[in-house]
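Honest question from a wet-lab person: if I give you the sequences of every part of a complex, can you actually get the arrangement of the whole thing, not just the pieces? Trying it with mine:
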Amino acid sequence: MSSETTERVLEARGLQKTFKSRQALAGIDLSLPRACVYGLLGPNGAGKSTLIRTLCGLLRPDSGEVHILGWRVPNVRIQSQIGYMPQEIALYDDLTVMQNLLFFGELYDLPRSQARERARDLLDFVRLADREKERVGALSGGMKRRVSLVASLLHKPRLLFLDEPTAGIDPRLRRTLWEHFARLAEEDTTVFVTTHLIEDAVHCHLIGFLSRGSLLAQGSPDELLTRTDQSDLESAFIALQEKEEGR
Amino acid sequence: MKSLAVSKNVLRRILQDRRTLFLIVLLPLLFVLLYGYSFSGTPHGLRILVVNQDNGLASVRTAEVGRITLEVNLAERFIEGLDRDLFLVERDDKPDGAMEHLGKDGIWVVAVFPQNFSHAVLNEAVRAAGERTIEYQGRTVRLVPTETVEGPRATLGLDDSNPILRSAILEEFRTVLTEVLATQQRILSAEDILSVEPLYQGEVRTLDYTAPGIIGFAMTLITVMLTAISIVRERTGGTLTRLLIAPIHPWQVTAGYTMAFASVSLFQVGELFLVSAWLFDIRIVGNPAAIALTVVLFAVGLQGIATLISTLARNEFQAMQFLLFLLIPSLMVSGVFWPLEVMPPGVRSLALVSPLTYANNALRGVMIKGLEIPGIALELAVLSGFAVLMFTFSVISMRRQGYTA
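Yes, you can. This is the full assembly:
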């Protein structure tokens, strides 16, 4: 994390969202410092995607509000400052890697030459420099995921939302991705990652445990272990969940 | 029986998908009901403008008392004999310029009866049949043929843009004229005293009549299908989310789609026209710019319909079914095959809300009648309204897709 951690990149207060009779978010408060990797952990169906979509303005909360870089979401000024990598690959299979990236670059008003240069740097960063002319449909799942990450980074977002970026990929690639995220944080990008894999938590500066739409606890991995008096994060999560259910 | 297991599984999935089930049950019903109601009617309510100058008098020569004047009023008898379900008869007393109303304001026929119509018809009948006897002032007299009366015939201006209505109108005229003439002499036929002046040069074939509607239908099918499936794919694949989170307004996304698919539509219509004209000598007498304008406005509106379908459909399969659900009724009721004038009032009011009706009328007006843009102003106005409404709806829907995708 950078030394300017006191600056809040994201603030959310009292977020609630209900789909029909199911409460997806039950009053979430969240605060993210600059240049950190924040991991939102929780089982499938805990409300991670709903929360991430609400934070970046894709979903309107029933109540509560979100501020990003001081502006209330949704706001067009925020859109060029955030990057979002959805759970789906979210690329055009029938276009080449570079055609995809140039198109998304154009949406962010990047001049073509600049977008191409940036795309090449990022493809190099995710070790796909030799694949720029290949059709996305012909790439492996892991490669597609890395191209998807590149598409989210083209415009140098200050806040990057990644929805389950490590789901269904092999351990080696997962480690590579976490290395990427750490480097992004070093370069002053705040990274918000959702994951259902508890082992991912060790890569985060801060984590939040989400269960049934409620944020059970937040803090650094060490803080949460101390607070729950557990030796590993999985036990810490279970302890917090049991405590919540016991209420 | 593994096949049975597969079959049961397919049926179970259909039964559990309420939208698919709804369409499976409703689509055939919709098809057969609209087909039945649309195609079982007979033409009615056609406007006809009648200019009757016939003085109703016929001067004929008799063997006994020389020339006598009879009051026969054949033109009036004919007009009164016209089927009032088929025709809405309107009268005008000025022959000059009456024909100019033809083809405008829904006037299908302008019938002009000259001043000496009765005189000419009666004398012609006597000349053709030879002597005949009639009762005149209490005595029987023999009518004898006279010199040929210079052929004043009833002039029938006919909007022949619709082959089905043209046949119905001519059939009715022949029937009524024959009935009226039968009171005089059967020897004269309707053709002897009727001069038909078609509005358009060259015969309008059924192929020419249906071609504009088929082109509009093909355009609807391809444009809506491509757009709806593209948007559904964008949504299910996640790229729509990526678009909507970028600094691009939903109207810009919609406009991008609209421009792309309007271009595709223009290309396709151009292709259809070229092949139709080349292989089938389809009638295209109007201004290509008027056709292009119609196509673009229609395509913009269709894009909105496609967005509506993509909002309702969870996947490409459902999008295809919704497409059929919209397409089949519009094909049935929009006057593509069967004129609106033939349809029952209920179905006709459905036609009024179908944009294909207006696209069809506009294309037909330009291709068959050679109308310019002012001539299809009403259709273009409706299609413009449709385009603006659907574009606005698309933007709202696109924004909503972002929130719910």
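Two things worth pointing out. Chain A has two domains: 8-81+157-246, 91-156. Residues 125 and 180 of chain A are 8 Å apart (CA to CA).
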